[in-house]
Amino acid sequence: MGVMRIGHISIKVMDIAAAVNHYENVLGMKTTHIDARGNVYLKCWDEWDKFSVILTSSDRAGMNHVAYKVENDADLDVLKRRVEEYGIKTEILHPEALPFIGRMLTFNLPSGHEMRLYAKKECVGTAVGTMNPDPWPDDLRGAGVHWLDHCLLMCEMNPEKGINKVAENTKFMMEVLDFYLAEQVVVGPDQNIQAATWLFRSSTPHDIAFVAGPRQGLHHFAFFLDSWHDVLKAADIMAKNKVRIDVAPTRHGITRGETIYFFDPSGNRNETFAGLGYLAQPDRPVTTWGEEFLGRGIFYHTGELNAAFTDVYT
Ligand code: M3P
Ligand code: FE
After folding, report:
1. What angle do CA 299, 304, 306 make, to 5 degrees?
2. Among 29, 59, 230, 239, which residue has the least CB neighbours within 10 Å?
3. Ligand 1 in contact with 261 (CB < 6 A)?
4. Domain end: 118, 133, 167, which one?
5. Highest mean pLDDT among 47-56, 159-168, 185-194
């Protein structure tokens, strides 16, 4: 019952052909559909549903919406009522709103980001199938990412004005969508202001994260890789393709993930993320990072944050 995992992210790109080249040849996704408006739908080899990324043409980068898959169609009615009782307006989008997908419940998070929930999407199977499968397919391209893993949304925080959308989103996700808190960064003299949170519904350390910033936006969306070696190889592929790398391979203290950050040709930040870190469970005690350990939490080795990483987002 309820949300299972991240299902897809719809993003804006300025040059569709350049974006398709990036998501296909650098990340290793495959185009599964192009709609009448020219929007491109792609999936990763280890995903079974029809798409996990939608590219739409725009004059700027950024996110249109992020969608999470719920287990049963009836969950949409239950969650619609709960979201509305919480005081947030919702709408049910009919199946024609996006191809290959059933009805979607749409609403804005307290931060203003559009979130959608859906129960049905056409299942096309993974690239290795379900009968005596090989561990990976023969025609892997680029980094060969397994699946869309999580997204990190930047949320407005302005303590002078009493605005903290990280805390508001976190409360909403936990109380209404039954997400669990894995980790948090707390700041302020009493170390009680949530400046960043990592939440899950699956058994991985996060399916969504929120970080405080001056305005709302998309910080990054991440794709899963098996191992540290795959992360290193992904960086080689990025170098070969002259992809703009933001942060070269390193480890997060928070979630223990092994990571690279880089940009698609429009400037949307991507991450390749390896290591399941730990088994996230509802009863796992929440990990808390104090303000002075923020750098270590984000980049465990250097312990240093750089402004380009925290201040640049779409
Ligand atoms: C991650 C992660 C920021 C922290 C990022 C952490 C943007 O991306 O996957 O744990 O401060
Ligand atoms: Fe991440």
Report:
1. 100
2. 59
3. no
4. 118
5. 47-56
